[in-house]
Each structure stands twice: as structure tokens, then as C-alpha cells.
Amino acid sequence: MFQKIRVAVVKNTRPVYLAAFSATLFFAVGLQNLTAHADTFTRHAIYSSVFFACVWIACRLFADGLNRRLQLEGYTAETAGDMIYTFVIYMELLKHVVGFSFTVGWIAGVMACWEFLGDRMIMVPLGASLAVSLTAFIVSFGFAAFTDQLRWPVKEEE
To answer: Can you give the residue ranges of every domain in the chain?
Structure first.
């Protein structure tokens, strides 16, 4: 019974609905602090539409990641059991959270390089930024590759 409900929800869920709800909520909350200026209202509407696009893209990427991970496990959304689907969602959430954290850390590291080394020749902050970028890329790529190697434990058939 739960399998049919989950398959129906997965098939009929549209990332655009979640993105529209999030952007509408973002817009409504932002309206509370706006003054009566048309320029401020227009800017907030543009920010809300950019927020909509970002949430929609994030939902699409997450759904594609789930489907790819299910294919790695040898299942589809319709054939995967609840435990396998939960495992796949957990692994993808873990990868996305770590990836987001390393992206924020990478941005902070590059900004710190330019802030603290910006008064030197251009090659010093550029080289430091490149070192931070390569380190963040290698660690995040290694983590993603490691989590892609983890599989749901399947009993061997004799």
C-alpha cells in the first residue's frame, strides 16, 4: 500500500510547486518590511523570482541525483522498496549538505585570500585562491566519490 502511494507522489510531485510555494512565502514575508516605494517593491519581486529559479533548479538537481543513485543501486523509483528509497534519500541529502558546506567554505576562503593578501602582487592572492579552490574541489569530489561507492547491503543469493 505504501509503495503505491510513494510511487504516485514521486511521479506527480513537481519541483515547480515547491519552488512557487517557497518564492511566494519569501515574497510575502519580505512585503512586511517594504516601504511604499515602487523601486523597493520591484527589486523585491525580482529577488523573489531569482529565489524561485534557484529553488526550482535545486529541486530538479536533487530529483536527478535521486534517480541516478537509484540506478547505481539497480532500481527505479517504482521498483525500489521503502528502505532502499530512504537510504538513497539519506545519501543524497548527505552529499548535498556537504557539497553546500564546502561551497560556502570555498567562497569564504577565496574572499579571505583576496582580503588578507590583496595588497600584494596579483599572483599571491590568485595563487592562494587557486590553492583554496583546488583543496575544496578535491575534498568535495573525494567525498562524493566515496559516498557513491557505498551501497545498500544486499544478501547474496546462494
So the answer is: 1-80, 81-153
